[in-house]
Amino acid sequence: MSENHTLRAWTDTVEPYLAPLSAAARSFTALTGVPVDLPDALFLRARLAGLERPGRTSANGSCRLLRAADGWTAVNLARPDDLAAVPALLALLGSPDDPEGLRAAVRRVAAAEAAEAAQSLGIAASVPGSVAADARPAVRAERWGERRTRALAGLRVVDFSALWAGPLCARLLGLAGARVVKVESATRPDGARLGSPAFYRWLHDGHDNAVVDFVPGALDALVAEADVVIEASRPRALRRLGLRAEEFLAARPGRVWVGITGYGRESDRIAFGDDAAVAGGLTGLDPDGDPVFLGDALADPVTGVFAAHAVARSLAGGGGELLCASMAACAATLAATRRPVRPPC
């Protein structure tokens, strides 16, 4: 199968939902002069890794849609710790010795109960459509500093995020002329390094890299020089390191801080791209009308594009803003634009 045919096969399933994302991409281009290649942003990782289009299991194999007693639950066993926690999850679901495992255990309980049990163990899990598009905007802006209008070109972006959404935001800002430095923990490097090397290089092309110990005070100098900060951490974790978005914004006019989370900065729930997409209702339907995954960890790149556009728009209006990007809300924004189209039998 040719690369163009493969790309079209991926794009066709998502196309009905892309109007809000396409509008954000066009606006980013109008603000910065940089075109956004949505097919690459959404599907380059899948193409480089040779992934198959998903069904009830995500394209990368870590997240599964499991039938519950009253619907469906997405459970994402993305990390070794998640797999190690499965026996504890089975115990919480009342099936500690079930030889059929998690699938059978989830089938006996309500979808929300299964998701809450997984979340209590730090496992990313969600119920389809549990985050509505009208609950919160894809990116919520809060003003904490004074305005000072500046172009992106030449501004310093410090990127503390990892994996996909934040780095894609940083990539787009870098293409618009910002000077990006990616900051990694000396003890916990970006997990994306374990995936496709070519995709990692694409995300971080042209960026500087700093490896530091994430201890109080170690990040102060990097943040002091920044005009824009990108992070994807819980606010309390950042406060332990001495980083407070509100103080950063108040210290100098025109700055922007973008925080990318699964469900908003006020929530401690973790999320990855596939389960966040499910939470936002961004799923397809199989011939029986049951949910299937769309794309590859779709909430990740969708959030990256929305976040980059929000930064460009904020800077054009003078900045001074804390931008709160919720992956589930970004997914819900797309899901609200069209009802899922059932694939042909």
List the keywords.
three-stranded antiparallel sheet, globular, 345 residues, alpha/beta, single chain, seven-stranded mixed sheet
Concise summary:
By secondary structure, the chain is an alpha/beta fold. Helix content is 40%, strand content 16%. It has helices spanning 3-14, 19-32, 38-49, 80-84, 86-92, 102-107, 111-120, 165-175, 197-204, 220-224, 235-240, 245-251, 273-279, 299-316, 327-335; strands at 63-68, 71-76, 124-126, 139-143, 156-159, 179-185, 208-212, 228-231, 256-261, 284-285, 291-292, 321-326.
Shape: globular
What fraction strand?
Answer: 15-25%
Helix content: 25-40%
Enumerate the spans where pLDDT stays under 50 for 5 or more consecutive residues.
none
Write up what this structure looks like:
The protein is globular. The chain is 40% helix and 16% strand. It has helices spanning 3-14, 19-32, 38-49, 80-84, 86-92, 102-107, 111-120, 165-175, 197-204, 220-224, 235-240, 245-251, 273-279, 299-316, 327-335; strands at residues 63-68, 71-76, 124-126, 139-143, 156-159, 179-185, 208-212, 228-231, 256-261, 284-285, 291-292, 321-326. The strands form three sheets. The chain has a seven-stranded mixed β-sheet with strand order 4-12-9-8-5-6-7, with helices on both faces. A three-stranded antiparallel β-sheet has the order 1-2-3, sandwiched between helices. With 345 residues, it is an alpha/beta fold. The longest helix has 18 residues, at 299-316. Helix 8 (165-175) crosses helix 14.
